[in-house]
Amino acid sequence: MTIRPTPAQLAWQQDGFGLFLHFGVNTFGGCEWSDGTLDPALFAPCALDTRQWVRTAVEAGAAYVVLTAKHHDGFCLWPTATTAYSVASSPWRGGKGDVVGELAEACREAGIGLGLYLSPWDRNAACYEDPEAYDAFYRQQLTELCTRYGPLYELWFDGAGSEGRTYGWDAAMAVVAEHQPDAMVFNMGLPTIRWAGNEDGLAADPCWYTVDSTGISLYDDGVSALDRARYLPPECDVPIRANWFWQEGDLHTLKSREHLLAVWYRSVGLGAGLLLNVPPDRTGRIDPADRARLLEFSGELARRFARPARATLAAGPDGEVVARFTAPVLLDHLELAEELTHGQLVTGHEVLADGEVIASGRTVGVRRVHAFAPVEVTRLTVRLTGPGGRLAAVTGFCTGHSSLPELAAEPGPAAGHPTA
């Protein structure tokens, strides 16, 4: 039986693009993974502006943001009752600040989704070595985040550092079910979306939405078997620089516009979601260079897909789909969308113009973007394989770019990241 998505999963898939915000004591300690001993007094942004973060996301076309409310070091960006290792012990806002609260308000004002990352691995919590005590500790932190800040769009549970560890996920997921039933759950617990399996921001073809196991961590080659096959569309994560937290001295690793475009074609363009990390700096604002590059990339995307030519669909012979445009159109990009209400059913496809194949692949999913040499058409024929798969839409574009960008090597090694 085909497994169907929930309305919340379909809505998440349609959104497609969010910004990751790695921010915390590591930002000020000059490291990616601290061990839970950095002094909270280091956390001292002089001009923290969550509205600037959200404005940047909105201008880039992102539908949501995900903030590292607690990373592996255990430092909490909200005044939690569970530990003194938080913003309450920092000089910022006189110890009265709440980064999560300020971001939640900014997201509500702008009308975009708020996602929160709560690392299961905690290198500061003294109770971490006592699984029962730590599960209660973690559950209290999760409850605070799920009850204080309004509706959450996504909860991000990172698997790095948790290899071989068993957590009390049933009780933790009961908290989510009670307080945030519509939030997407990433990767662990009872996930509704999954990790794509790399930190390069890349999906694959086929991009399957129904799986019976998932990868948990970059540092574990194994997979985690699910209790049954589940509908779990992938989210691809990647940093805009080599590091995930803002660091001095790595501006040379800022990804080029073309690299970011290539990532988009190979994530969103293959039917996955993209979570692009653009971290706030030590002032508490998005770095001007990162912001400029992000908007350069998203602006070029907007330009390429600004003038859609939508086709009407009709059944053709032998199960083919005929896509007709109202007038002759010059195309070098084509976006296909599958009807997913009854699950993902298309396992292969090819698109023909005047009998010649101009695009082909395996899955279609929520969106599949093809680039090809420019061709003028009034109709296209789409051949689908799979058990009853149907297209919801075919949209053509003439962008002036007829080939996919190449993923050029970027300077500097990719830093190891706590992604699952």
Automatic annotation (TrEMBL):
<keyword id="KW-0732">Signal</keyword>
<dbReference type="Pfam" id="PF01120">
    <property type="entry name" value="Alpha_L_fucos"/>
</dbReference>
<feature type="domain" description="Glycoside hydrolase family 29 N-terminal">
    <location>
        <begin position="42"/>
        <end position="297"/>
    </location>
</feature>
<dbReference type="InterPro" id="IPR017853">
    <property type="entry name" value="GH"/>
</dbReference>
<keyword id="KW-0326">Glycosidase</keyword>
<keyword id="KW-0378">Hydrolase</keyword>
<comment type="function">
    <text>Alpha-L-fucosidase is responsible for hydrolyzing the alpha-1,6-linked fucose joined to the reducing-end N-acetylglucosamine of the carbohydrate moieties of glycoproteins.</text>
</comment>
<dbReference type="InterPro" id="IPR057739">
    <property type="entry name" value="Glyco_hydro_29_N"/>
</dbReference>
<dbReference type="GO" id="GO:0005764">
    <property type="term" value="C:lysosome"/>
</dbReference>
<dbReference type="GO" id="GO:0006004">
    <property type="term" value="P:fucose metabolic process"/>
</dbReference>
<dbReference type="InterPro" id="IPR016286">
    <property type="entry name" value="FUC_metazoa-typ"/>
</dbReference>
<dbReference type="InterPro" id="IPR000933">
    <property type="entry name" value="Glyco_hydro_29"/>
</dbReference>
<protein>
    <recommendedName>
        <fullName>alpha-L-fucosidase</fullName>
        <ecNumber>3.2.1.51</ecNumber>
    </recommendedName>
</protein>
<dbReference type="GO" id="GO:0004560">
    <property type="term" value="F:alpha-L-fucosidase activity"/>
</dbReference>
<comment type="similarity">
    <text>Belongs to the glycosyl hydrolase 29 family.</text>
</comment>
<dbReference type="GO" id="GO:0016139">
    <property type="term" value="P:glycoside catabolic process"/>
</dbReference>
